Structure formats: structure tokens, C-alpha cells
Amino acid sequence: MSLLKAEVGGVPEFAAGEFGSIEAHHLESKAHAHGLKVRMEDASFTSYLPVNIHGGALIIEYNELASLATEEMRRRGVPVITRESRR
């Protein structure tokens, strides 16, 4: 953290990237301990993972195609079951 502060000391703000909540809180506390001000932003999002009745998942790596498939499945009445998960 002190190396980071030495590198960005003159810069008023920079984006550190996206982290899971546990890592983000750890980084926040370390940054505060070194006198850095931290602004955290919620980067949560909703996504869908199509799963068949046997538990097999359809994984589509292209976001646009995945969105189109999801929209079409919902349009055709495929039931949506909500599950909370942590990244």
C-alpha cells in the first residue's frame, strides 16, 4: 500500500478496479490506514444463467448473444428462478 501511495501520491483520484466485497473492504481498510481516501462504488449487476431441468447450464461467453438468448427465453415463457450468489 505504501508503494501504491508513492506511485499515485500526486494524483487526486484513480480507479483501482473491481473487487469482490471481501477484497474491497480489506483494501479500503488498508488504504485508510495509510491515509488514503477511498470512494467505493457498488458494481453489482443482475445476470441470468440458463439451466435445464437436469441442472446443465448454458454458458454463452458473448454478452450480446447471452442477452439475446435470455430475452428470447423470457419472451417464450421460460420460468425465471432467482438465486442470490456472491462473486
SS-based class: mainly alpha
N to C succession of SSEs: HHH
Number of helices: 3
Let me know the number of strands. Answer: 0
What is the rounded Rg?
20 Å
Distance between the termini: 24 Å
Report the portion of residues in β strands: under 5%
Shape verdict: elongated
Largest sheet: none
Low-confidence stretches: none
Please bin the fraction of helical residues.
25-40%
The mean pLDDT is 77
Number of domains: 2
Question: Could you walk me through the main structural features you see in this protein, from its secondary elements to its overall organization?
Answer:
The protein has 2 domains: 2-33, no CATH class; 45-87, no CATH class. It has 3 helices and no strands. The protein is mainly alpha-helical. It is 38% helix and 0% strand.
Short description:
With 87 residues, the protein is mainly α. Helices cover 38% and strands 0% of the residues.
Task: Record keyword descriptors for this entry.
3 helices, about 90 residues, 2 domains, mainly alpha, about 40% helix, single chain
Provide the fold topology:
Elements: H1 2-8, H2 21-33, H3 63-75
